């Protein structure tokens, strides 16, 4: 839906008739006093509104923003989304805003580009600490005025207090966006608030933050990737550590810490480090090598099966040129794009059997994997294994000296299946064996 002007008669008619669920107001042109009263009155009685987004100047927010928030607070509507992005207002200490947030079943809240100060942020933190319904919280460039200035409206102590209210609370957001104004202190407060066993956060956008030291970034990556077991998307683009002359500090301890934190991760789908200027080509090489092992750990069949089958986007670019991905890494990322982890795992098993000398332990691991759920073969995995496992060597026919017949299969997997054809299930195994006898 396009932004609608607040004095649009059609809009007022929809509000009065409870025929609108999503409303975007762009107050780019001045409202008349009468138009403002009509809008506020219509909002106060509208029961159908679920999604409200307001965009206005600071002066307009100060003039009628409070009345709009008050009308929404007292209306019969049950807002699930509230966006005040680009209003550049302090919302008069956020008292009215806090009440609206408290009394609405919000699932998404966007307060980006507003001049909120420590006191207002603390009030919002108290309310959000008891808001389990909230799934998305966006706080980008909070503490700035409409000219992009005043980034000290919120101090590190203010952010620490805000995150302190969320720590140990019922706050269970799935998506969190934080841009600009963060340093070691605020990043540590954030990771403390997320907890040591966070099972809800899926997306974290911590971007355009230039105030963390190399040690701060090391701690951030280690803690976030170590403690957020459901994390799927991590975006730290346009970030780096800076010296007193605002030049990037190159420190590959960051790359090493990130690489170590990725070990064993099975949930991450995207990692964006575009324009992360504190990592050089050596650091990118460290990260790429670790990611390749994460996607395909060839130590054994068991490590292949337990590899990450979800990470499909890896965006790396620092102060220098964008690093060139090794072909194997690019292929594995492409393979993971299918989104079907069973398919991906099956393909990686096929690659393993076609490339490496399998062991008895590998065969046993494969058997356990194929039958782990129901005792029967995992039908989603088996076709890929059967179709491709024999391609390392050609299957050839050989006659034994006794005049009998035998089949020399090119992989251990086929020998395993011949030894115990019931791995396909009783019916499938018997059918398969009968078919082979008939063909031979």
What would you say this structure looks like, in words?
- This protein is an alpha/beta fold and 440 residues long.
- Helix content is 43%, strand content 12%.
- The protein has 17 helices and twelve strands.
- It has a ten-stranded parallel β-sheet with strand order 1-2-3-4-5-6-7-8-9-10, with no helix packed on it.
- Helix 4 (95-103) packs parallel to helix 5 and helix 6 runs parallel beside helix 7.
State the gist of this model.
The protein has 440 residues and is of the alpha/beta class. The chain has helices at 9-16, 33-45, 58-74, 95-103, 118-128, 156-166, 184-194, 214-227, 253-262, 281-295, 301-305, 327-336, 341-355, 360-371, 382-388, 412-419, 426-439; strands at residues 22-26, 51-55, 81-83, 108-110, 136-140, 175-179, 203-207, 233-235, 270-274, 313-317, 396-399, 405-408.
Strand order of the largest sheet: 1-2-3-4-5-6-7-8-9-10
Q: List how many beta strands DSSP finds.
A: 12
**Overall pLDDT metric:** 81
Number of helix segments? Answer: 17
Stretches where pLDDT falls below 50 for ≥5 residues? 387-412, 423-440
Question: What gap, in angstroms, lies between the N and C termini?
Answer: 67 Å
What value does the Rg take, in angstroms? 29 Å
The biggest beta sheet, please? 10 strands, parallel
* SSE string: HEHEHEHEHEHEHEHEHEHHEHHHHEEHH
Shape: elongated
Helical residue percent band: 40-55%
What structural class should be given to the helix and strand makeup? alpha/beta
């Amino acid at each position: 839906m396009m932004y609608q002007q607040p004095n649009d008669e059609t809009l007022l008619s929809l509000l009065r008739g409870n025929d609108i669920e999503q409303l975007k107001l762009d107050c780019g042109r001045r409202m008349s006093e009468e138009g403002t009263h009509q809008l506020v009155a219509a909002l106060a009685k509208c029961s159908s509104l679920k999604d409200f987004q307001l965009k206005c100047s600071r002066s307009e927010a100060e003039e009628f923003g409070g009345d709009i928030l008050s009308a929404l607070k007292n209306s019969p509507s049950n807002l699930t989304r509230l966006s005040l992005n680009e209003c550049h207002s302090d919302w008069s200490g956020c008292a009215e805003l806090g009440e609206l947030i408290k009394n609405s079943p919000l699932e998404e809240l966007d307060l980006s580009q507003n001049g909120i100060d420590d006191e207002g942020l603390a009030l919002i933190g108290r309310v959000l600490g008891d808001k389990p319904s909230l799934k998305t919280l966006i706080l980008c460039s909070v503490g700035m005025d409409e000219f992009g200035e005043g980034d000290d409206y919120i101090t590190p102590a203010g952010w620490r207090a805000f995150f302190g209210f969320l720590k140990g609370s019922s706050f269970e957001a799935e998506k969190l966006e934080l841009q600009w104004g963060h340093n070691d202190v605020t990043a540590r407060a954030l990771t403390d608030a997320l907890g040591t066993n966070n099972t809800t956060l899926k997306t974290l956008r911590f971007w355009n933050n230039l105030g963390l030291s190399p040690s701060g970034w090391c701690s951030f990556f280690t803690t976030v990737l170590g403690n957020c077991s459901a994390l799927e998307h991590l975006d730290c683009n346009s970030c780096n550590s800076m010296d007193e002359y605002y030049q990037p500090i190159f420190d590959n301890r960051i790359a090493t810490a990130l690489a170590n934190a990725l070990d064993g991760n099975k949930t991450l789908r995207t990692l964006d480090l575009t324009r992360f200027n504190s990592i050089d080509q050596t650091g990118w090489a460290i990260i790429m090598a670790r990611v390749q092992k994460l996607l395909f750990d060839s130590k054994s069949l068991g490590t292949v099966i337990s590899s990450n089958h979800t990470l499909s986007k890896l965006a790396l670019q620092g102060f220098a040129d964008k690093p060139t991905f090794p072909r194997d890494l690019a292929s594995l990322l492409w393979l993971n794009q299918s989104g079907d982890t069973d398919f991906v795992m099956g393909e990686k098993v096929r690659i393993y059997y076609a490339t490496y000398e399998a062991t008895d332990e590998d065969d046993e691991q494969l058997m356990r994997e194929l039958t782990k759920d129901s005792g029967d073969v995992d039908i989603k995995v088996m076709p890929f294994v059967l179709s491709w496992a024999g391609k390392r060597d050609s299957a050839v026919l050989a006659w034994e000296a006794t005049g009998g017949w035998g089949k020399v299969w090119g992989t251990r997997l086929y020998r395993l299946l011949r030894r115990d054809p019931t791995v396909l299930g009783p019916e499938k195994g018997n059918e398969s064996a009968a078919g082979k006898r008939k063909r031979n």
